[in-house]
Amino acid sequence: MTVFSKQPMTSRTLTVNQFQPAYKRLLLPVCLIALLATDSTRDLVVNSLSDAFWAVSTYVAFTLVVYHYLSAFISSENKLASLYRNSRHYQVFFAALLGALPGCGGAIVVTTQFVSGRVGFGAIVAVLTSTMGDAAFLLLASQPDVGLGVVALGVVVGWLTGCLVNALHADDFLRPPTPSLSVAQDPASCDQQPTENEQKAINVQGEFWRWIMLPTLAVALLGSFQVDVNALLSLPEMTIEWAGTVMIVGSMLLWSLTREIKDYQSTVSEDNKPLASHPFQKAAQDTNFITAWVIVGFLAFELITHFAQINITQSLSGWGIWMPFLGMMVGLLPGCGPQILVTSLYLSGAVPMSAQLSNAISNDGDALFPAIAMAPKAALVATFYSALPALVVGYGYYWIFE
User: Fold this and answer.
1) How would residue 367 be classed by pLDDT, with cut points 50, 70 and 90?
2) Which domain of life is it from (predicted)?
3) Which helix (H) or strand (E) element contains residue 131?
4) Which of 69, 82, 312, 315 lies 20 to 30 angstroms, CA to CA, from 342?
5) For residue 378, what are the contacts with CB-CB under 8 A and spacing of at least 6?
6) CA 142 → CA 19, 43, 137, distances in Å?
7) How far is CA 61 from CA 54, 137, 213, 291, 310, in A?
8) Residue 335 above 60 pLDDT?
9) Quick check: 398 pLDDT over 60?
10) pTM (2 decimals)?
11) 3-state helix/strand/coil string of 165-217
């Protein structure tokens, strides 16, 4: 008789088994394929995914490629950088400008510099107030005029808020007494490095976007000018729509294999990117992250409207005076994912501009994660300070224009 030895089942074993499979991001492309295979949802999903790819992902990818190429040629050692470090008043202004950079890089830089003692508390409030995180890429790519206006408004509000905070607090207000230098220099260093298979997926998605960038951008531009690309190229009806659907599902499959979801931060924040990565590789990682949240927003909007027969735009408009407050509250959540969702709903017409503005001002993006890790008290107080001007701006726009 065969005897099986029983190994003690520890809490670690239970935890590992409970959350398998590791790559939970695969749920998104699997759900997309299932919806495409279902007759009742196929047409709706194809149109939604096609719009997400041609009207959002392609423009976001192009914007990110340009941004990362420019970033590679900008040196941090110059007179402006010296002025930023040595002047208390200029720190706030330049911190607001850094926060206005699309993405979370500028905000993370100022956050780590506050912990290491190189900038004051007013600078961290200014940068967290002005930053929009990755949602800025989405808004700039979809509605450039609105995006530039919101970014410019964020700079002004961040600068004024930082100046006010400077008048109230000293530079070392709530600064940790003994910051960890290694973490302050590189907040991403504590995150697990990609495995060999994950790195291969990262490399492939970089190549994927490098090869399709120009042709997809051309098609997207034609579509923006209301040109029927199928008719122009003598293609069967819905060819371009299906092409966009296939490419967006393919990009989501690649994205799902580049990182494991372990906690809230790994779900709502963009992937860490080594400084030595190629601009196309960085752009691909950010584009696919933004696209994933856009898909969630677009499909949730369309599927609820279709099956529940609920007009989300009218339903949310019934909230009226509460919308700027809700936008601000979502902005307090760390990470860029929830903020991209708000911007997606704004672009679809479900969320008014007042809610978009309050969310943009209160939104701290991924910069809040290293801030909470290195200086939790300063992060919470700075977030509170950024919420106050968010309410002022959101409700100011609501009462004047809406």
Assistant:
1) confident
2) Bacteria
3) none
4) 69
5) 114, 121, 124, 173, 174, 175, 176, 371
6) 36, 23, 8
7) 11, 9, 8, 10, 33
8) yes
9) yes
10) 0.76
11) HHHHCCCCCCCCCCCCHHHHHCHHHHCCCCCHHHHHHHHHHHHHHHHHHHHHH
Asked whether residue 328 carries a pLDDT value surpassing 80, the answer given is yes
Q: Give residue 149's Cα distance to chain centre.
A: 18
CA distance 45 to 111: 40
Sign of CA dihedral 245, 249, 255, 256: positive
**Which helix (H) or strand (E) is 96 found in, with range?**
helix 88-100
Report which residue type is found at 388: L
Structure tokens that stand for 54 in this block: 């041609």
User: What are the CB-based long-range contacts (under 8 Å, 24+) for 117-120?
Assistant: 117/172, 117/175, 117/179, 118/85, 119/84, 119/85, 119/91, 119/95, 119/171, 120/88, 120/91, 120/166, 120/170, 120/171, 120/172, 120/173
Amino acid letter, residue 263 = D
Structure tokens at 157: 């509000």
Neighbours of 367 (CB within 10 A): 32
